[in-house]
Automatic annotation (TrEMBL):
One of its GO terms (cellular component) is endoplasmic reticulum. InterPro entries: Lipovitellin_superhlx_dom (IPR011030), MTTP (IPR039988), Vitellogenin_N (IPR001747). Residues 1-229 form the Vitellogenin domain. It comes from the Eukaryota. One of its GO terms (molecular function) is phospholipid transporter activity. The gene is Mttp_0. This is MTP protein. One of its GO terms (biological process) is lipoprotein metabolic process. PANTHER family: MICROSOMAL TRIGLYCERIDE TRANSFER PROTEIN, LARGE SUBUNIT, MICROSOMAL TRIGLYCERIDE TRANSFER PROTEIN-LIKE.
Length: 253
């Protein structure tokens, strides 16, 4: 079906979308995203009316885009255009934002970061949304998007939120940092993770401290960090201490 869509003209894909039975429409939308031809994306652009379509169909569109294994710049352009300046239901906006991060990350993996204007626009959309976010839940969504993008230049932003944010924000920022390859976990990142785990600046929830310890133990651990984490484990409850001990044993193996 996808192969057929790749060779179809825009008017034919659009007619297919308009005539598809309601229960088949999500499947056709997903297939049109997967086809990623100029015609199929143009047809989707014309067909998807964000002021009328049910939330479930719009979310299906964003999920299909986010999980596309080798997305094109044109697909990111379509997602950005459909989100730009629209008043959308919160869950649709959230899914779209996370999809932008996923598309940016995959395009950069294809070495298209500096070659696609849409990538720069996508990154700026996420960073601007993060700056303007008022609610904690909004901040978390934009941090998830940054985690999907895995761009080294966003590490300072993630560190700020990891150390200074409330629990949910700290957890999301550290989770995003965990996704970076070891070469990007610098001494500065490790110093921040030590401050969080050992609670040097303020108290952190257990999940935040454990996530910080995981980065220290998973990304080329230093003997000093292993020793200090084991010593600190003596002060923690049994379940948490056991988790850390297993992490250390796994690293040793």
């Amino acid at each position: 079906f996808i192969q057929m869509l790749r060779s179809a003209k825009k008017r034919d894909v659009l007619q297919l979308l308009r005539r598809a039975p309601e229960e088949m429409l999500p499947f056709v939308v997903e297939a049109a995203v997967a086809a990623q031809s100029v015609a199929s994306l143009a047809a989707l652009s014309d067909f998807l009316d964000f002021s009328k379509e049910p939330k479930s169909l719009l979310e299906k569109f964003f999920y299909a885009a986010a999980f596309s294994p080798r997305p094109s710049g044109e697909l990111l352009h379509l997602v950005l255009d459909k989100l730009d300046g629209k008043q959308l239901a919160p869950e649709v906006q959230e899914t779209g934002t996370v999809a932008i991060g996923s598309l940016v990350g995959k395009l950069c993996q294809q070495k298209l970061c500096g070659l696609q204007q849409e990538v720069e626009r996508g990154v700026e959309t996420i960073l601007r949304g993060l700056r303007d976010a008022k609610d904690e839940s909004e901040v978390v969504i934009y941090l998830l998007a940054l985690g999907n993008a895995v761009l080294p230049e966003t590490i300072p932003t993630l560190l700020d939120h990891a150390e200074e944010g409330p629990a949910a924000v700290t957890t999301a920022a550290i989770s995003a940092l965990q996704r970076f390859p070891t070469q990007h976990i610098s001494s500065k990142v490790k110093r921040a993770m030590r401050r969080i785990f050992h609670e040097k600046r303020k108290s952190y929830e257990k999940t935040c401290r454990l996530a910080a310890a995981e980065i220290l133990l998973d990304k080329e651990p230093l003997p000093m960090d292993v020793i200090n984490i084991l010593l600190a484990a003596n002060e923690l409850e049994t379940e948490t201490a056991t988790f850390l001990l297993l992490k250390v044993q796994s690293s040793l193996r």
